[in-house]
């Protein structure tokens, strides 16, 4: 995981993804922490579609994404102007029983308000 973080620090996205693929080929299954590092790295560079793909891959591998992974993707979606996707992911998270925290609400409310979606933002507080 430390190596993955380091690769992202130097904008070596494809190398980080390749490293994880090599790990899998050698029988080392990534865990939630490994996926968290990948999701964080791809969201920081605006690759939110890849982050969503990684989320689906985690679920397919029977790994349970935690609130931090969801928050990272929601934050990335908001920063890169995808408020509808962020709200959809929030609803998906809630439907799966993953409880949003203060960061989740702050991020999403701020995002929705930035787009003038006051009613949607207020709806999160109900």
Automatic annotation (TrEMBL):
The UniProt keywords, alphabetically, are:
Repeat
Protein name, as recorded: Pentatricopeptide repeat-containing protein
**Top-level taxon in the UniProt lineage:** Eukaryota
Where are this protein's PPR repeats? 1-30, 31-65, 66-100, 101-126
For the keyword Repeat, the answer is yes
Q: Return any one Pfam family short name.
A: PPR_2
The keyword Repeat is assigned to this record: yes
């Amino acid at each position: 995981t430390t190596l993955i973080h380091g690769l992202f620090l130097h904008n070596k996205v494809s190398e980080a993804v390749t490293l994880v693929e090599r790990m899998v080929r050698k029988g080392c299954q990534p865990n939630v922490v490994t996926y968290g590092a990948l999701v964080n790295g791809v969201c920081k560079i605006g690759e939110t579609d890849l982050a969503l793909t990684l989320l689906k891959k985690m679920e397919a591998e029977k790994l349970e994404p935690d609130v931090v992974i969801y928050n990272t993707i929601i934050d990335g979606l908001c920063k890169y102007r995808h408020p509808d996707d962020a709200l959809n992911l929030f609803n998906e998270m809630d439907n799966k029983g993953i409880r949003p925290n203060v960061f989740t609400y702050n991020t999403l409310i701020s995002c929705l308000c930035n787009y003038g979606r006051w009613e949607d933002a207020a709806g999160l507080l109900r």
